[in-house]
Design goal:
The structure holds two protein chains of two kinds. By secondary structure, chain A is mostly beta strands. Helix content of chain A is 7%, strand content 34%. Among the domains of chain A are: 93 residues, Immunoglobulins (Immunoglobulin-like); 95 residues, Immunoglobulin-like, CATH 2.60.40; 104 residues, Immunoglobulins (Immunoglobulin-like, Sandwich), CATH 2.60.40.10. In chain A, strands 1, 13, 14, 17, 18 and 19 form a six-stranded antiparallel sheet that branches. Chain A has a five-stranded mixed sheet with strand order 3-10-9-5-6, with no helix packed on it. Chain A has a five-stranded mixed sheet with strand order 15-16-12-11-20, with no helix packed on it. Chain B has five helices and no strands. Chain B has a single domain, classed as Growth Hormone, Chain: A (Up-down Bundle). In chain B, helix 4 packs antiparallel against helix 5. The longest helix of chain B is centred in the N-terminal third of the chain and has 33 residues. The chains are: A mainly beta, B mainly alpha. Chain B: Belongs to the IL-6 superfamily.
């Protein structure tokens, strides 16, 4: 049997409803004077039952003239006539019904059990509620948008299928003091979620739990304890721009702005970039973009449209040691790499702006060489930027490295300037 | 337009002031509103039966058409009445429908809490019934006919009694409450459709 305390409604017999005065609304069962019409009362009225249980019900006929008979009466359940062997005449005016091993209710408003006269007319009705008590909700997760609110989501126990309307209530309180509060804005991010919009304290833990209740009982989740500062998320970075890097066919430059709501607090923010080719569903993710607002994607395919997105993790807000929660991805921004006759490389990596080398072996060696040049030849203006410009120039003129000479300025310690040939690089 | 009670022609009117275009426009507008609400009322009824479960949606389902306190279906002789009398009955019925639709909505909020569209339609229907009733009364006033409704206090008392009766029905059991809701939604459709027909006969160029 499922967990949960048994509720008060799990009983199979109830008092029959009172008769209504003739001047008030006429519901099923009020006789029309002199018409010869019969009415009836079903007992129990609107019972609540566990799945698999049994039901004993009666339909008692009243009528004018007296002597209304139970002969010819029959039952339907949700519009389907029930087999005669399930019924028996108890006395002249009462037809009984026995149902066993009940299935869960077909609709939340209750299964319609109806008592009919011989001619098919409806004499009375009762709604059955057959289901299960709720199981313990679990897997509560919460996040705060810019430290201003708190949204929580949970998973209902037993995958939510109780066949009865089950009410979920998110409760919260400050751990060390204060009263229980109840969340009021439900279904904000799915059917099992709630949003607390304001009046939340920082630097002090909250206790949060979910209570599930239906006609058959209730259940309570485990308590989640958290500090708002440890579950902060923020908006996606705005103003994401993707552009070409000169004529470089395998690179795109990505720039963005810190999310404005937390821009004064994002000292340790982390960013992630993901990109994909236009007609692909596979994203490549660049992870190591910490606390910068620009990046260069390298190793891309020439002449290809790429979609790029960025997201932010406000790690370390007010000294929080927890990991933080990633924002949503920014809206996709598209750009295309320049076309080239030569096939481009297929890999991808992110090069931060300023010409810091990536992990490729050629560029590592180049970095070492440039470092040596700066040290020994006083070439302070040599940089990856100059190297990239040379590559772009090479591609533009379609000449090999061994056929071209370029001018660079690399003064020696004695002040003399010396022409630098690219093939010596 | 023929000379009959409720005709738009007023031989006493000052020829320099012509209220007819304004009245015609008002009638057309109200007729258009009634036509739109007839469609919505049909949708409401379909949505309602879906959420009550079978046999409510089955063809041939016919619970007893018992009267609702303070409101009955249009009488068979309604179409033969003079136009102002028909419109008065339309307005009175629409006014009586609003609190009854509210009761049905409150009960459905307990029975079908995860049916937001049904609940919204019921809420809209209550407002629309009131709006159409007020519009019909405005047409009656423009026609120069008395609305001849009951004084405000007895009308409010009648509405409260109807609500109390409907609430008592819901207390009598879920199935009777479902049947009540079906009856109220059906009456709403009947009266909105009746109002559309009655106004259609007043629209210039419409059927006599």
């Amino acid at each position: 049997m499922p967990a949960g305390r048994p509720g008060p409604a799990a009983q199979s017999a109830r008092r029959p409803p009172p008769l209504l005065p003739l001047l008030l609304l006429c519901v099923l069962g009020a006789p029309r004077a002199g018409s010869g019409a019969h009415t009836a009362v079903i007992s129990p009225q609107d019972p609540t039952l566990l799945i698999g249980s049994s039901l004993q019900a009666t339909c008692s006929v009243h009528g004018d003239p007296p002597g209304a008979t139970a002969e010819g009466l029959y039952w339907t359940l949700n519009g389907r006539r029930l087999a005669p062997e399930l019924s028996r005449v108890l006395n002249a005016s009462t037809l009984a019904l026995a149902l066993a091993n009940l299935n869960g209710s077909r609709q939340q408003s209750g299964d319609n059990l109806v008592c009919h006269a011989r001619d098919g007319s409806i004499l009375a009705g009762s709604c059955l509620y057959v289901g299960l008590p709720p199981e313990k909700p679990f897997n509560i997760s919460c996040w705060s948008k810019n430290m201003k609110d708190l949204t929580c989501r949970w998973t209902p126990g037993a995958h939510g299928e109780t066949f009865l309307h089950t009410n979920y209530s998110l409760k919260y309180k400050l751990r060390w003091y204060g009263q229980d509060n109840t969340c009021e804005e439900y279904h904000t991010v799915g059917p099992h979620s709630c949003h607390i919009p304001k009046d939340l304290a920082l630097f002090t833990p909250y206790e949060i739990w979910v209570e599930a209740t239906n006609r058959l009982g209730s259940a309570r989740s485990d308590v989640l304890t958290l500090d708002i500062l440890d579950v902060v998320t923020t908006d996606p970075p705005p103003d994401v721009h993707v552009s070409r890097v000169g004529g470089l066919e395998d690179q795109l430059s990505v720039r963005w702005v810190s999310p404005p709501a937390l821009k004064d607090f994002l000292f340790q923010a982390k960013y992630q970039i993901r990109y994909r080719v236009e007609d692909s569903v596979d994203w490549k993710v660049v992870d190591d973009v910490s606390n910068q607002t620009s990046c260069r994607l390298a190793g891309l395919k020439p002449g290809t449209v790429y979609f790029v997105q960025v997201r932010c993790n406000p790690f370390g807000i007010y000294g929080s040691k927890k990991a933080g929660i990633w924002s949503e991805w920014s809206h996709p921004t598209a750009a295309s790499t320049p076309r080239s006759e030569r096939p481009g490389p297929g890999g991808g990596a992110c090069e931060p702006r300023g010409g810091e080398p990536s992990s490729g072996p050629v560029r590592r060696e180049l970095k070492q060489f440039l470092g040596w040049l700066k040290k020994h030849a006083y070439c302070s203006n040599l940089s990856f930027r100059l190297y990239d410009q040379w590559r772009a120039w090479m591609q533009k003129t379609h000449k090999t490295r061994n056929q071209h000479r370029t001018r660079g300025s690399c003064p020696r310690a004695d002040g003399a300037r010396r022409e630098v040939l690219p093939d010596k690089l | 337009m023929s000379r009959r009670e409720g005709s738009l022609e007023d031989p006493q009117a000052d020829s320099s002031i012509s209220p007819l275009p304004h009245l015609e426009a008002k009638i057309r507008q109200t007729h258009s509103l009634a036509r739109l609400l007839t469609k919505y009322a049909e949708q409401l009824l379909q949505e309602y039966v879906q959420h009550q479960g079978d046999p409510f949606g089955l063809p041939g389902f016919s619970p007893p058409r018992l009267p609702v306190a303070g409101l009955s279906a249009p009488a068979p002789g309604h179409a033969g009445l003079p136009a102002p009398e028909r419109l008065r009955l339309d307005a009175a019925a629409l006014s009586a429908l609003q609190p009854l639709l509210d009761v049905v909505r409150r009960h459905q909020a307990e029975l079908n809490p995860r049916a937001p569209r049904l609940l919204r339609r019921l809420e809209d229907a209550a407002r629309q019934a009131r709006a159409l009733g007020a519009a019909v009364e405005a047409v009656l006033a423009a026609l120069g006919a008395e609305t001849r409704g009951p004084p405000a206090e007895p009308a409010a008392a009648a509405a409260a009694a109807a609500v109390a009766a409907a609430t008592a029905a819901t207390d009598a059991g879920v199935f009777p409450a479902k049947v009540l809701g079906l009856r109220v939604c059906g009456l709403y459709r009947e009266w909105v459709s009746r109002t559309e027909g009655d106004l259609g006969q007043l629209v210039p160029g419409g059927p006599a």
